[in-house]
Amino acid sequence: MSAQQLPPQSSMAITLQIVSIVFYTFIAFLCIGLPIAVLPGYVHEQLGFSAIVAGLTIGSQYLATLLSRPMAGRMSDNVGTKRAIIYGLAGIVLSGVLTLISTLLQDVPLLSLMILIAGRLLLGIAQGLIGVGTISWCMGQVGAEHTARSISWNGIASYGAIAIGAPMGVVMVQQLGFASLGIALSLLALGALWLIRNKPSVPVIRGERLPFRAVFGRIAPFGASLSLASIGYGTLTTFITLYYINRGWTGAAYCLTVFGVCFILSRLLFISAIGRFGGFTSAIACMSIETAGLVLLWLAPSTGYALLGAGLTGFGLSLVYPALGVEAIKQVPNSSRGAGLSAYAVFFDLALAIAGPLMGAVALNLGYSWIFFSAALLSVSGLTLTLLLKRRARD
Q: Which residue ranges does UniProt annotate as crossing the membrane (predicted)?
């Protein structure tokens, strides 16, 4: 029986295939989450550097991810998704070794810091390789028609892993010391390398490889809309604690919890809506909900309204990435799919990078509540751009 004659797979079978692949995203982001809450304190208190240096040490990973996106896309297209993930996991092993060496050289603070940053850079490159590789592998395995589901489950794996890894890292350091972080990273990645060794990959797609700049140009309008919507996420996660303090409230962490729970629930319950109604329509509806949540945060008279606003923001933002991603990936040939996914991810990276300084300037000049009003305006701008893209696609 030919591939075309095979009966269609059940929804559960497709989901299980996707989960078996995004498992490697989960491992990668678990390794990212473990040190995220404790490394700033390590750099500042144990090594004796300023809070600015501590922030730059953490940020170096995200910079490496951003700059390595083109390479990650090319590697996924040219050598295959499985090999790209293997290279990423190997990078995490080395990152763990460097992190361990750094903690053993605390008596030489500058050398320890430089080795630690080198490990962070490797971790950032690995994040880019694994993130693109897993989504591209999923699409090759279950079909491009399940792009939204592939992206969504990849996001669930990453956010869930960080949510688990951050508190786990704190407990590990308290019980076992900082050296346990490097050991854990290496062991987790080695375990994933052992599991992936016999897993069959999809073949490399033959055909013309578009230059990354050409892919970037095709993806840019969709990525710009994603960036405008995603600044709300960066604003909430970065400033919600200071916003609460400014209002004289307590319990900012609950706001982040509500955001995260609604984000994941939306992806689990409504991911099929993208296939049913289309990427543009789904993105427009979700951006409208996100905007309403940001406006509610801006006007919130009490913590109850703020929690509702955070929930609406998470619920709406959740499907924007996969909804626009479905339409964005249509703009490039399958042979350049990895490059397309990398180019699209760049815009999300940029949104998180600019949210801090941009909204910090707003807070400094207008007050903390106005950061959510500004984020809502940007979300409306993304909504408008998406409407224009939908009209262009229809014409």
A: 21-43, 49-72, 84-105, 111-139, 151-170, 176-196, 219-245, 251-270, 277-299, 305-329, 341-364, 370-389
